[in-house]
Amino acid sequence: xxxxxVLGLFALLGVSCEPSSAEKxxxxxxxxxxxxxxxxxxxxxxxxxxxxxxxxxxxxxxLFRPSRKSLQLLERADIIIANGLRLExxxxxxxxxxxxxxxxxxxxAGLYKGSLITADDRDRTADPHxxxxxxxxxxxxEHILSTLEKAEVPCVNRPAAEDYLSRLELLHEEIAEITGxxxxxxxxxxxxxxxxxxxxxxxxxxxxxLQGISTAAEYGVRDIRDVVQLITDxxxxxxxxxxxIAPRAMDAVTAGCESRGYRLKRGGTxxxxxxxxxxxxxxxxxxxxxxxxxxxKSALK
Length: 301
Ligand SMILES: [Zn+2]
Prior knowledge:
Layout: H1 21-27, E1 30-33, H2 36-45, E2 50-53, H3 68-76, E3 79-82, H4 92-98, E4 104-106, H5 134-150, H6 158-180, E5 188-191, H7 197-203, E6 206-209, H8 221-234, E7 238-242, H9 248-259, E8 265-270, H10 285-300
Parallel strand pairs: 1-2, 1-3, 3-4, 5-6, 7-8
The structure holds zinc ion.
Zinc ion (ZN) binds at residues 62, 129, 193, 195, 272-273.
């Protein structure tokens, strides 16, 4: 079986600062997700629950620190869904503390360990961006669904969830088809931070980045020089921006190429760690995956 159904850390009992049952009945059952990508999935698998995301469009999860409002939402939550694998790097302590009082489910706990990509760093850190491979995201969604059911969350909608999972299965094939139209020698994806390793593995693209798997680490002048050299040597037509990251690193790469007389295209903005805002065409996970695939194909083809 590909995905182990491991329960996340589960709470013992609520404490005094939990809302009273009367307040809860009025408010309904509240599922709080760390990222908008998770909230989108949970929204498709439940009905008549309140589903909230701590991180909105364009928010960088690696750097996100919960505001007072976020902490209040976590306090009000009946169950919390997080990505895990240290994506929510600066929320680690809050999530650990909260898990002593209420269920915290980590989507990544449902993934087969052997499917995880590890970074080249000393600690062999697991890459948390598994949602960029739709088949892995489907596995994480299955884990969330089974955990919600085991926890007897009242608003799980099994038929809707199964529809959504089938939709993801189809999406995986569609993304492979779209990216499959890029000629093999042009399949090089250059992005600011290392969010697309699973994408590259699943859909056959070489991935080159300026930063590692967390945006908390700085990139250096040398990295930029290396990337400029590689682009000009291999005549790579385009590089990409990410919606949750400032464009300055790619500005430096573009300027570096220009100074060598090489005209580098900005291929467009990819949605890596956050959904797009209203009107972006990437407001849901499925749309975000389409948007990324068509942006990449158009720029590299
Ligand atoms: Zn990231």
